[in-house]
């Protein structure tokens, strides 16, 4: 109850409509899209912040943003805020829960923290959003056709990469939850470290990370760096799969054949390797040391796909180095 008094609501959906002009039905729909329970007609589930958010929603609509666009943004926001709220709550508990606390102790301490620290989160969230928005605008490249039509292309040519940790499921049965969380956290940090323009980190999901770039070369370089960084951090070995092709962007994520293909390639890659499809191989050119990895039939892809393993140009397998010292003719390597 003490926390509820700090974070709870004061208004019904109808009262929010009276104050903002946003229909109560849309107010309730937005709340539902945020992943929150739908309130009853007389339930005071909305706060002063919700009223201000509704005013902002009306401003977006009046500026010409379609309702479905607002709905999509709201859904993505809800998913992100749910994850952030869960992480923040766990952080509060880990930092401020004390041995022997009674329910009243916990309630009073957490309500005091909520009152003090929640307002302090607002500039943090705004700062992060503005920084990401600035980077998105910097990276955006509008084609002449898009400018002439006034619409963004539904599909874009992208290089897509997945990197995951090999044997992570088995590891879950061997490590304590806190140790496993440490592995995931370290991997996420390493993934963020290699995502330098024009490479974009789309998301991390536990033991896997997804990247995209309109330039395959930098994406392959980022994958190689991440695989090496994972090894240096003494994590389970990483592997990567990369494919180029048309992708569809929606609600902060990418879909399409290239995404599916990159995921399938990752699933058959050996630990410590970066496997690429023909398009990525051809587009990156001689920037990397390539070896043919054979043709593979991948689930849901159709005909067999030729794959190539990428290595830095400076990397040279020991057997090749010895062969060169002997003056033997180099042989074509096969790797997967």
What key phrases describe this protein's structure?
336 residues; alpha+beta; 8-stranded mixed beta sheet; 13 helices; 54% helix; 17% strand; disordered C terminus
What does this structure look like?
- The chain is an alpha+beta fold.
- The protein contains 13 helices and eight strands.
- Strand 7 and strand 8 form a beta hairpin.
- The longest helix has 37 residues, at 103-139.
- It is globular and about 65 Å long.
Summarize the structure.
With 336 residues, this protein is of the alpha+beta class.
Which stretches are poorly predicted, pLDDT < 50 over at least 5 residues? Answer: 318-336
Order of helices and strands: HHHHHHHEHHEEHEEHEHEEH
Largest sheet: 8 strands, mixed
What is the SS-derived class?
A: alpha+beta
Q: Would you tell me the overall average pLDDT?
A: 83
Please count the beta strands (DSSP E, at least 2 residues each).
8
Global morphology = globular
Number of helices, counting only DSSP H or I runs of 4 residues or more: 13
Strand residue content: 15-25%
Helix content: 40-55%
Question: CA-to-CA gap between the ends?
Answer: 58 Å
> For the CA atoms, what is the radius of gyration?
25 Å
Fold blueprint:
Blueprint: H1 2-7, H2 13-20, H3 24-33, H4 48-62, H5 67-96, H6 103-139, H7 144-149, E1 155-165, H8 168-172, H9 177-194, E2 200-205, E3 208-213, H10 216-232, E4 238-250, E5 253-255, H11 257-268, E6 274-277, H12 278-284, E7 289-296, E8 305-311, H13 318-326
């Amino acid at each position: 109850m003490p926390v509820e008094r700090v974070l709870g609501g004061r208004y019904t959906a109808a009262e929010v409509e009276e104050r903002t002009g946003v229909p109560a039905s849309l107010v309730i729909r937005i709340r539902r899209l945020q992943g929150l329970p739908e309130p009853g007609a007389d339930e005071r589930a909305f706060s002063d912040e919700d009223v201000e958010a509704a005013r902002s929603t009306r401003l977006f609509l009046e500026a010409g943003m379609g309702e479905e666009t607002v709905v999509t943004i709201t859904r993505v926001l809800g998913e992100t805020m749910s994850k952030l709220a869960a992480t923040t709550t766990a952080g509060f508990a880990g930092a401020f829960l004390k041995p022997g606390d009674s329910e009243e102790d916990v309630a009073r301490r957490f309500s005091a923290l909520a009152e003090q620290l929640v307002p302090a989160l607002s500039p943090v969230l705004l700062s992060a959003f503005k920084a990401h928005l600035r980077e998105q605008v910097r990276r955006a490249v509008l084609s002449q056709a898009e400018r002439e039509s006034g619409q963004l292309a539904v599909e874009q040519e992208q290089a897509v990469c997945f990197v995951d940790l090999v044997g992570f499921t088995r590891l879950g049965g061997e490590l304590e939850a806190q140790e496993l969380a440490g592995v995931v956290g370290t991997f996420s940090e390493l993934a963020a470290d290699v995502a330098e323009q024009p490479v974009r980190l789309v998301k991390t999901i536990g033991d896997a990370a997804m990247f995209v770039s309109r330039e395959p070369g930098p994406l392959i370089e980022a994958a190689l760096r991440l695989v090496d960084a994972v090894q240096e951090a003494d994590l389970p070995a990483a592997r990567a799969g990369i494919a180029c092709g048309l992708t569809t962007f929606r609600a902060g994520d990418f879909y399409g054949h290239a995404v599916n293909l990159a995921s399938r390639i990752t699933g058959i890659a050996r630990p410590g390797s970066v496997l690429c499809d023909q398009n990525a191989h051809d587009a990156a050119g001689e920037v990397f040391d390539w070896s043919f990895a054979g043709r593979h039939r991948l689930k849901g892809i159709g005909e067999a796909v030729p794959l190539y393993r990428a290595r830095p140009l400076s990397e040279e397998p020991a057997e090749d180095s010895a062969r060169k010292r002997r003056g033997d003719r180099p042989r074509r390597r096969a790797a997967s």
